[in-house]
Amino acid sequence: MSTLITDWSQQHVLLTGAQGGLGQELARQLTEKGALVTLVGRREDALREQAVTLGQRDLLCDLTHAEDVAALVDHVQTSRPQITGWIHAAGCSITDLYTHTPWAKHAEVMQLNTLVPMQLTHALLPLLQRQQQTWLLHVGSVFGALGFPTQASYCASKAALARFCEALQRELEPSVCTIMYAAPRAIKTTMNDGVMHRFNQSSGTHEDSPAHVAGAILRQIEQGQRRQTIGWPERLFVKLNALVPQLVDANLRKPLRQLRQLLQEQNP
């Protein structure tokens, strides 16, 4: 594995999902490293404040709107200096029993977590391939390799994203554009507030800080590492789930009981 980036000051990074807990930390650390960053988000005032604070560029874009996605692609095509790398950190989740959630919400998770990054990759990859040593990284989840109760659509969306990245990695020569995928475990962000945070606390499940995860992702990009799972013992659970899924089945019965109780307390 060769080094991909030695000097971040030569990088212009497109950061989608820049306003999330992880996205904000990625933006901060990229700025500290000297990279030029175009921050992409959908909350206008907060996005502008973030850009001004960091001294970076901003681009208002709602990734669930087709016209906004088209405008984003147009912006990348004309951006100077050219985009050299892209981190996709946007996403959403649901914590509930599968049939207790309206289908429209499941569809929203699949759209934002899977179809949007696939669509953007389809549009942006040819632009990145015109240059040397370009790269893109999609932020997935350990749940993309480990089915977890009350997270059915989220697990499905991240599993699809992981296989999408893997297929592209095997389709493209690394010298053309390095495709990377990062799978963090639970992160202390607003997306994990509520039932999942209470479950993590009661079960002793560790939640990583956004700073820790952002640092791991940037090191992955620097090294050109195609894939990584962040966190232990989650890396072990992923391997066990692939080799002996019935063993993991048994270990998830107690968490399911805890989650059912927490959901009932939230929605009596």
> What is the overall silhouette?
globular
Class from secondary-structure proportions: alpha/beta
Number of strands: 7
- The tally of structural domains comes to 1
Order of helices and strands: EHEHEHEHEHEHHEHHH
CATH class: Alpha Beta
Helix content: 40-55%
Assigned CATH superfamily: NAD(P)-binding Rossmann-like Domain
First-last Cα distance: 52 Å
- Quaternary organisation of the protein chains: single chain
Tally of helical segments = 10
Largest sheet: 7 strands, parallel
Across the major sheet, the strand order is 3-2-1-4-5-6-7
Low-pLDDT stretches are none
Radius of gyration: 18 Å
What fraction of residues sit in β-strands? 5-15%
Average pLDDT value? 92
The fold-level CATH name is Rossmann fold
- Looking at the overall shape, the CATH architecture is 3-Layer(aba) Sandwich
Any overview of this molecule?
This protein has 268 residues and is an alpha/beta fold. It has one domain (9-266): Rossmann fold. The chain has helices at 21-32, 44-54, 66-78, 103-129, 152-171, 195-203, 210-223, 234-243, 245-251, 253-266, and strands at 12-16, 36-41, 57-60, 85-88, 134-139, 177-184, 227-230. A 7-stranded parallel β-sheet has the order 3-2-1-4-5-6-7, sandwiched between helices. The radius of gyration is 18 Å and the shape is globular. The model has no long low-confidence stretch (mean pLDDT 92).
Keywords:
268 residues, alpha/beta, Rossmann fold, seven-stranded parallel beta sheet
